[in-house]
Design brief:
Blueprint (H helix, E strand, L loop, with lengths): L2 E4 L20 H8 L2 E2 L4 E2 L20 E5 L4 E4 L3 H10 L9 H29 L4 E9 L2 E11 L9 E7 L4 H20 L7
Antiparallel strand pairs: 1-5, 2-3, 4-5, 6-7, 7-8
Function: Lyase that catalyzes the covalent linking of the heme group to the cytochrome C apoprotein to produce the mature functional cytochrome.
GO molecular function, one term: holocytochrome-c synthase activity
Protein name: Holocytochrome c-type synthase
């Protein structure tokens, strides 16, 4: 739920100057605005103002720039609380507006953490070359054999005597393992930063 824009968080500079719904004309104009597709990400272009049918209240319209690049000069920009709420209402998902700011904050942090994991993979290919060793480990998970792949890299940037970076992930040999790899960044963020489990530090 991010939009590709130039590096600015001023709604007016982004061409998103706030408008009162009453100035939009008839009600069908609101429906038309909600159904506009942003060609940059092929997702609905959610307006950054309070829609009349969602109530008369207004939420925070400030947007934050992510660290995730679109190209050399542009970065993805996270939705404002108002846009996030409008999007949920568009999908007929009921949520207390008092929690929107917290939900948006978690949404943004999870995306940042996911990007860090992607960078780790890319760093591995760019800087480390091929692994000098590889092992396959098998874990008995309540009667189900689960395969893990362990690749060992020589990484001189690590400040210890070993200089070894270990990349561990489930093998892509089952739908369960694929799903684990997709959702792992979200679990790691939750247990590392919210629950603060020692295992994830």
């Amino acid at each position: 739920m991010m939009q590709n824009l130039s590096r600015t968080n001023n709604p007016e500079e982004c061409g998103e100057k706030a408008k009162c719904p009453t100035t939009m004309g008839r009600h069908n104009r609101l429906e038309e605005v909600e159904n506009v597709i942003n060609e940059r990400n092929m997702m609905p272009d959610i307006p950054n103002y309070s829609l009349k049918k969602n109530g008369d209240f207004s939420l925070n319209r400030k947007r934050h720039i992510s660290s995730i690049p679109k190209n050399n000069s542009e970065y993805w920009i996270y939705p404002s609380s108002q846009q996030f709420y409008n999007s949920l209402m568009r999908k007929n998902k009921d949520i207390d507006k008092n929690y929107i700011d917290a939900v948006v904050s978690i949404h943004n942090e999870v995306n940042e953490e996911s990007w860090k994991h992607i960078l780790k993979y890319e760093y591995m290919h760019k800087k480390l070359g091929r692994p000098f060793d590889r092992h396959d480990w098998y874990v008995n998970r309540c009667g189900t054999e689960v395969k893990y792949i362990l690749d060992y890299y020589n990484d001189e940037s690590i400040n210890d005597d070993k200089n070894i970076y270990i990349d561990v992930r489930p093998a892509m040999d089952s739908l369960s393992n694929v799903w684990d790899r997709v959702r792992y960044p979200f679990y790691e963020f939750y247990f590392k930063y919210i629950k603060k489990y020692e295992l994830f530090r």
